[in-house]
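re the bet — no i am not wrong, look at it urself. input seq straight from the record:
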Amino acid sequence: MTTTGARPEAMPIATIGPARLFAGVGQGDPHSHDHHRRTHGELSRIDKQGLVSALATVGLRGRGGAAFPVADKLAATPAGGASEVVVNVSEGEPASHKDRTLAQTAPHLVIDGALTVAQSLRTRRVTIAVRDRGAADVFSWALADRADTRKVRLQATSGGFVSGEARALLQSIAGMPAVPPGHRVLPTVSGLGGKPTFVSNAETFAHIGLLACHGVEWFGEVGASERGTTLVTLVGDLPHTGLVEAPHGIGLGELAGTGGPTLIGGYHGTWVDRVDDLRLDRAHLHGRGLHLGAGVIARLPQDTCALGEVTRIARWLAAESSGQCGPCFFGLPAIAGDLDALMAGRLPTRGLEHLRRRLDLLPGRGACGHPDGAAMFIRTALDVHQAEIADHLAHGTCGRSCTGALPLDTTGANWS
C-alpha cells in the first residue's frame, strides 16, 4: 500500500497499485487545470452511443451505493437540452470520506466526467451539488481555472443522511424539502424540475473522466468483472485506516486483514463474521448477498462494546429519518429502544426474537431505502455479535464501555 500525497483534511489517502484517481496528488497543485491536463492528457469528446458503449465495456457501476450500471443509466437518459446532469457531492454517510476527499484532491477529474456526460447528452446545464464547505471552495477555484465550464453551476445542499439520496438531493436543489418523494420514479424519467436527469456521485463522474481522458483499453488494464479501481474508506481496528484506491478483484483480506466481525458498506451495510474469502468486486459481493454501498469497511476495536456501538448508530439512524413513512417514523425509534433495553439486560423474555421480527417488517415498506438499510445493519450486527449479546442478556453488560469507534461526525457545515 502506497501513501499518495497529502490532502487538506486529516484523512490519509493511499493506493494499492498505480494511482489513477489520485494520480498527481502531492506532485504539484491538484487544483490547477494545467497540472491536471499534464497528468491525465486531453479530454476526448464522445457522443452518447460511444460513451454508453465504453461504459458497458468497462462495466462501470455507480459508486453512490446502489451500484447501478452507469451505461444503462446513461442509455435511459434522453439526449437534448431538456435533460439535466447533477453531480452528487453531498455524502451523508459519516463513515465515508471518498467523495469529499476526491473533490478536494482531484476536482478536475470530477468536472471532466460531468462535462463528458453533458456533452454526450447535449445538455445545457451541469449542477455540482455540494454540502461540505471545503469541497465547495475547491470546486469554485477549479471551475474558475477552466475555460470550458460555462454551463456548470455550484449548488449548496442541506445536510443529513437521507438528504444524500439522489431523489432527495434533487428535491433540495429545486428548493423543496430534502426528502425522497413517496413515488419511486427514476430521475432519468423525472428528476430535477421534472426533467430527465443523469445524477450520480463524485467518484462515478471521476471514473467517467478517467475513461474520457485515457480510453477503454487503459481503463481496463486493472480490475476484475468490473474494470478499474474503486475508493474504500477503512475504519477502526484494521491494518491500515484512511481512504484507499484499490483495483477491483483484490481480496478484502488485503484491505482489512483477517480479523473478526467486519462491517461492509457503511451504516446501510452488512456485518460479516470474516472477510478472507471475499473480493473487492461488486458482482462477487452481490452474489454473496452483500454490497459495497458507500465504500466503507470497518472493524471494531476489542476495547469497545460492540452492542453499544450498534445501538449508538441505530439511535442516529432513527434520528436521521425524514419522518414521512411509518417504518422510519415509528419502526426505527422502537428498534433503537429495544436495543437500549438489550444493552441494559432489560429486554423481556423472547424480546430478542420480537426485535428480529420487527426488523424483518421494515424492508420494502418505506418511502426510500433508509429503513431497509438500517434494518440490514442492525439485523446482521445481532447475528455476528451473539456472544456479546448473550453477556448483555445475562448480566446487563459485557464489561466494556462504548468508546464511539464508529464515526458520526459528518464534517463540513452547509454553505450558501
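see?? The chain has three domains: 15-219, 229-299, 306-395. told u. also The radius of gyration is 21 Å. so pay up
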